[in-house]
Write a structure and sequence with these properties.
Elements lengths: L2 H14 L13 E2 L12 H14 L18 H13 L4 E5 L2 H11 L6 E5 L4 H10 L2 E5 L4 H8 L6 E6 L11 H10 L3 E5 L14 H4 L8 E5 L9 E5 L1 H10 L1 H4 L6 H14 L3 H18 L5 E2 L5 E5 L3 H13 L2 E2 L1 E3 L10 E5 L6 H14 L1
Length: 374
Amino acid sequence: MSYKDNISKKLAARKSENAFRTLSVREGLIDFFSNDYIGFARNKELQKEIHSKELSYNLEVCNGSTGSRLLSGNSALAESVEQYLAQFFKVESTLLFNSGYAANLGVLSALPQKGDTILYDELIHASLKDGARLSFADRISFRHNDLEDLERKIKKSKGDIFVVLESIYSMDGDQALLKEIIGISKKYNACIIVDEAHSTGTSGAIGQGLVLAENVADDIDIRIHTFGKAMGIHGACVAGSKELIDYLINFSRPFIYTTAFSPHSFLSVLAAFEKLEQSASVIEALNKNIQQLSAGLHSFEGYIASTSPIHVLKVGGTDNVKQLATAVQESGFDVRPILSPTVKKGEERLRFCVHAFNTKTQIEELLAALKKNL
């Protein structure tokens, strides 16, 4: 069988399962799906502040970065943004990556070595799993937030041990049991890596993430903060010790062999985080909307309790969840079905993301549309 035959076969199978993915543009619907949790992606004031910084910095190289950070792509601006982020996230050092995917790949592919063990929550993001594959370390999943399963497997682990989590899980919206997992991991001298993609900009009074909000930063070795969700821009940083950052600069291939941020991207990061420091009231508004949506969904069968912006209603069956999503969209709300293989077969779901800019009336009407169509 040629590769072309294999492509056709796999696409045909995906279509037969009614799980074929296509790119689409939907306009005019009320947003209950995007990761723009605090509205920064659509914030015109932030857009103006980014543009103002571009004009005020008077950079000689103003469009592209011209190369990787280790060649021509580094700058005083790049280093100043990383220093700012280190202060914001209360760590020794940070290192910028072009995306959260690249940062996760960069950490997991570089740190664990052959003979080491990566223990990961079964629900971590695909980018973390992909990074783990590239490491050549042993990879073992443990049941989601299952402390007994984690300890049972950590006891059998070899070499250096890395425990990998998300602070808020993207497909269920629930939180990692940080304090309990820290207790187990430290007992066995394991390194803890936490992906804060969905808590950056939303958790804590000024959005520093769940690790700082729960006051456990001293017990977490490595944090990855993504900017493409609540921060409304692009990129990510790894936060940790100076020695960790020096190691990644020397051994992380997704950092070494990629073109650096453009000046626009560096300034966007700086402007977005400066704005976040002044956005406690926006985060408070988000939390009120989270509480309203959670209270309204609580009575629906299949709802997974959540205190994050992500809320999930398990429906089960590709046809069922796609039909429900279409009906809710026809009522004016942008919600999307999550299908297998993104989630396990039988656990297909509607995934709602609530935002600071959603109104009380919009949430009430969304709940009414759900009730009508279930």
